[in-house]
Amino acid sequence: MTQPKRIMGAVLHGPEDLRYEPVRPEPLGADEVRISLGAAGICGSDQHYFRHARMGNFVLKAPFALGHEMSGDVIETGPEAAGLAPGDRVVVDPALTCGSCPGCRAGRANLCHNVQFMGSASHDPHLDGGYRDTFVVKAVRCVKVPAGTPHEIVVVTEPLSVAVHAVERAGPLLGRDVVITGGGTIGCLIAATARAAGAARICVSDPSGFRRDTALKMGATDVIDPTQRDAINALDAAGGAFDIGFEASGNTAGFNDCVRMVRRGGKAVLVGMIPTTDCTVPFNHMTTREIDLISTFRQNGVFGRSAAMLVDGHIDPGPIVTGSYRLAEVHKAFTASFDSERHIKVLLLGAGS
Description:
There is one protein chain. This protein is of the alpha/beta class. The chain folds into 2 domains: 7-156 and 317-349, Alpha-Beta Complex (Quinone Oxidoreductase, Chain A, domain 1); 162-295, Rossmann fold (3-Layer(aba) Sandwich), CATH 3.40.50. The protein has helices spanning 44-52, 102-105, 151-154, 157-170, 185-196, 209-217, 229-237, 252-260, 283-288, 303-311, 330-337, and strands at residues 7-14, 17-23, 32-41, 54-55, 58-59, 64-65, 70-77, 89-92, 95-96, 116-117, 134-138, 142-145, 177-181, 201-205, 222-224, 242-247, 262-270, 292-295, 321-326, 345-349. α11 links the parallel β19 and β20. The longest helix has 14 residues, at 157-170. The two termini are 21 Å apart.
């Protein structure tokens, strides 16, 4: 297949310096496939990169294309790209692990020492992400989905896999009472996953009325406005009310509220990536209530299963997919994504959508 003469992408050059510009054509390796972008999601980490050219300890060192939530259609395959053919619809796992480091050998591939993660500054040199008309990836990154599956559905696989991994790290939820701080993409997907796992009560705390309403559509049984401190203070004074708390806001205040709402002997699961090296932790609450702190990072071995949950309709991401723009409208898309009273998950659409 003839490679298009001009491939466009959204390339980060610095804080609030995201340029829609030509990107270099990529050669196709024997075990690789070339994909035409169907859809790519704007994640909270993409927003942090856009605003600050960093995400936590991952700092921009050279320009790279953003985007680690992406689906597309295969347009070309290398001779050793087994199981895939032109025309196949796929969702792409942004993480390619080595399989041989201590993390991988321990069965925790999400902690791979040599991971190649697309659209992130965590790897040096940085690896371009999916905000491109076409891109080349190893075939093993791809999960094939039915051809008629909308990109707007399967593109949510990566954030759903983060939620599924967090829920599995927490342990069985059947009959448990759960609180989630943060009603963004991950918080709402944790709510949906917790519902599928049989949680009895699923409470979401978020200052945005729009996000609280959306959380209810995604599976929450009730919601809390954390700006109204009486409710959280009363839960804290009563010794907490929830068996398991998930912190999904990426905010230090959200983490503190999460711990304060967990009862004695419960668990607090840290999912949101707090973009600072400093965070006040309520250690006294954790010690006197003997709350287990569990951290999660990305996902581990649940990517394909998460795609299947979307394809089969077990998880419906419709309520959180609130806006879509063509890739060329990337600046409008990012502006919209920061409007938390109108949007949760904003998508960039490629030629395949």
